[in-house]
Specification:
The chain is of the alpha/beta class. It has six helices and eleven strands. The chain has a domain at 6-85 and 151-225: P-loop containing nucleotide triphosphate hydrolases (Rossmann fold), CATH 3.40.50. It has helices at 54-61, 93-100, 103-115, 129-146, 163-175, 217-225; strands at residues 6-9, 14-19, 26-33, 37-39, 42-46, 72-75, 77-81, 150-155, 180-185, 197-202, 205-209. It binds adenosine-5'-triphosphate (ATP). GO terms for molecular function: ATP binding; ATP hydrolysis activity.
Length: 226
């Protein structure tokens, strides 16, 4: 059996970007860990104000850039999804899924489309923003489910979805895929009933809460930010 997926960030790891010419590179740190952080299978939310470095952090965890200092460890198959679906606008959603999946996986994708009220016969370019996000969400779910232990990193996948769908999706995340580490950047914390932890960036430090403060993750977020 494959080991459980996990995500580990050592204490003192710094995330940011490098500027300047190769012989005079300068590092700009956006966020650093104030504690060692380990997340196992479950739903983990990354919520922080605009411009604090969430996307930079997620891209670094996905291996698309290096941390400025420190070490990261991911165990499992890492899937990273940026905030917008990149696909040929002329193909129908159904054709898109047929290109990715076969048999049982395709049936799961079609089932999920039905649950989320996505019309598979519309060209991707003619879908609304929210409906395009559903295509991305379904792709992510099925890809993660097909791997033996996945680390699923998603950047604002709920943007553009209506309130009912947001609640539906966050419930689905909480109830399914206990073999997947999901780290999700979002701003829509009010729609989350269940999650396993919350990460936030406050004053340049990455903070991690594994239990709720009070009766909501929103309250936990406010406490960590204060
Ligand atoms: N390679 C780079 N070169 C220059 N600036 C950069 C680079 N990477 C990130 N930044 C800057 O760092 C800041 C944080 O960016 P990032 O996209 O990680 O924030 P964010 O928290 O995801 O923001 P938002 O919530 O608005 O999506 C931004 O001001 C961005 O322009």
């Amino acid at each position: 059996m494959a080991p459980a997926p996990l995500l580990h960030i050592s204490d003192g790891t710094r995330f940011g970007y490098r500027t300047g010419l190769p012989w005079s590179r300068q590092s700009r740190c956006l966020v650093e860990t104030a504690q060692e952080i380990t997340t196992g299978p479950g739903l983990h939310l990354l919520v922080a104000p605009n411009g604090t470095g969430k996307t930079t952090l997620l891209r670094t965890l996905a291996g698309l850039s290096r941390p400025l200092t420190g070490t990261l460890k991911t165990q499992g198959c890492v899937h990273y999804f940026a905030d917008e679906l990149k696909a040929d606008p002329e193909i129908k959603a159904r054709t898109f899924f047929r290109a990715w999946f076969r048999s049982a996986a395709l049936a799961q994708a079609e089932k999920l489309a039905e649950i989320l009220r996505l019309d598979l016969n519309t060209q991707i370019g003619k879908l609304s923003r929210g409906n395009r996000q559903k295509v991305l969400l379904i792709l992510a779910e099925i890809k993660a489910a097909r791997s033996q232990g996945s680390v699923l990193l998603m950047d604002e996948p709920l943007t553009g979805l209506d309130a009912e769908t947001r609640t539906q999706v966050t419930q689905l995340w909480a109830e399914t895929g206990r073999t997947t580490v999901r780290l999700i950047i979002m701003h829509e914390l009010e729609c989350v009933q269940q999650a396993d932890s919350l990460l936030t960036i406050a004053h340049g430090k990455l903070k991690h809460a594994t239990t709720r403060t009070g009766d909501s993750w929103m309250k936990t977020y406010q406490t960590l930010q204060s």
